[in-house]
Amino acid sequence: METQIGLRVDGTRHTVRIDTRETLLDVLRERLGNTSPKKGCDHGQCGACTVLLDGRRVTTCLALAVSHDGAELTTAAGLASGAQLHPVQQAFVTHDAFQCGYCTPGQVCSAVGMLDEASRGWPSACTEPGELVRLSDAEIAERMSGNLCRCGAYVNIVAAIRQAAVDADAPDTP
Amino acid sequence: MKPFRYDRATSPAAAVAAVAADPQASYLAGGTNLVDHLRLGLTEPGLLVDVGGLPLHEIEELPDGGLRIGAGVANSDLAADRRVRERYPVLSVALLSGASGQLRNLATTGGNLLQRTRCGYFQDVTEPCNKRAPGSGCAALGGWNRYHAILGASSHCIAVHPSDLAVALTALDARVRVLGVDGERAIPIDDFYRLPGDEPQRDTVLEHGDLITAVDLPPLPVARNSGYRKVRDRASYAFALVSVAAAIRIEDGTVADVRIALGGVAHRPWRAHTAEQALHGAPSTVEGYAAAAARELSAADPLPGNAFKVPLARSVLTSVLTQLAEEAR
Ligand SMILES: Cc1cc2nc3c(=O)[nH]c(=O)nc-3n(C[C@H](O)[C@H](O)[C@H](O)COP(=O)(O)OP(=O)(O)OC[C@H]3O[C@@H](n4cnc5c(N)ncnc54)[C@H](O)[C@@H]3O)c2cc1C
Ligand code: SF4
Ligand code: FES
Ligand code: FES
Description:
The complex is a heterodimer.
Chain A: E1 2-9, E2 12-19, H1 24-31, E3 50-53, E4 56-59, E5 71-74, H2 87-94, H3 104-119, H4 137-143, H5 154-167
Parallel strand pairs in A: 1-5
Antiparallel strand pairs in A: 1-2, 3-4, 3-5
Helix pairs in contact in A: 2-5
Chain B: E1 5-8, H1 12-20, E2 25-28, H2 34-40, E3 47-50, E4 59-61, E5 67-70, H3 75-80, H4 82-87, H5 89-96, H6 101-106, H7 109-113, H8 164-171, E6 175-180, E7 183-188, H9 189-192, E8 211-217, E9 226-231, E10 242-251, E11 254-263, E12 270-271, H10 273-279, H11 286-297, H12 309-328
Parallel strand pairs in B: 1-3, 2-3
Antiparallel strand pairs in B: 4-5, 5-8, 6-7, 6-8, 9-10, 10-11, 11-12
Helix pairs in contact in B: 5-8, 10-11, 11-12
């Protein structure tokens, strides 16, 4: 079934005609030409398609576009302000946190969303109940487990995110 | 993917009316399970009724001291809720042990409870599967069944229920609130999920058109001392081989109250009534916990591919109870 939706992507408003079967990922890539979110698995299993949806990180390959009419999306391509990279992007460059780069836009969006969750005191499966959130390497790995990296750049990804967290002075109080 | 019509429900009653009237209709929430199934061709609804816009996004205090969780509350918001973390930590940890941060932001309470098995043959339309195509057989019985059931299975289906949330809710005696064509009802979660028997296509007791509106948690002081442990093939972002949700209260060295549910072992979250009965009023000792776990697992009927789950479930249960009992002191 054909229908029309509105989306705001990286600050720009779009009105697009879509088929009800299309996911946000397909609409971003195929209709709007924004290829920064990647299609790795199309089954929610790899995180390459992660973007921020109304400020929260989500996988876009299992989200039907029609059910997100009016949403505000930020992709990795929209994180920088002008020539100035987002601090998480810069930290990935500084720490050489990628090899082929395929997973990177998803990793970066996921990290931005994750740091926001941590700053709001959201626990993870490895936060002791009642404890404050401190982004140890184990915490970062657990919170980022939804992003797979086929090149195995994990060690540097964790280092990059650790630095971005320190730089953002991520409050460690809930 | 087959074409389908899309409808945004304007009220719970309108959603029920729309789905009940059309045998080919299905509810859509976060889509993290349903869209996967549409793509795999496991289900081919002609109409999707989106329940995302319904006013079911709140977590409310109940007059009796319990909590009401709206069906549309995201798994991530529920796990982070202060009241849940303080009063029902098992629930928060169970949710955080499931899926990933990105998926939990989309996944909802209702959708999580009704997600379908991850049995690989169920997800592959070229394989026989009684759950997907009743009467076609069960490829898992003589196939790869490492993840499958050791308790309560039948010769028709040996699948397990994949939800971590449901296991915690089972230990907590939650009630699922359902709106159907004949009005609203509350179903104790222990009566909500089914064993496969000869109708494995039915995961729950719900009828077509039934809408989950909320899940009610009873006031349960014992749940303040509760926990969830999930054993899997990798440390995170994987389904359970075995999981344990438990809550315990110790008074004067004896077990005053205990709630236990196992995940990854059966077609439904497995409330460990046998172990609970063995422990009520018994001294709080490691030997006692091990004996109770052994009694619960004595009913296990594993296959060669998943026989390891029996000692695994026994040890994890013993360990979780021992640890919670220590923390209760
Ligand atoms: C890679 C991956 C890993 C995962 N790992 C885990 C894990 O480790 N543990 C775990 O527990 N889960 C896991 N999940 C599953 C995830 O938790 C579920 O997909 C999610 O909870 C489903 O919620 P949803 O809102 O997206 O449901 P949807 O996909 O929208 O719906 C699922 C089903 O529920 C029905 N439905 C939805 N809402 C209602 C309602 N209110 N009333 C009646 N019917 C309704 C729909 O019709 C559909 O049949 C994983 C998923 C993926 C993709
Ligand atoms: S175990 Fe159940 S779901 Fe899996 S193939 Fe057999 S019938 Fe299908
Ligand atoms: S493409 Fe979406 S998670 Fe892999
Ligand atoms: S850098 Fe190649 S997949 Fe991660």
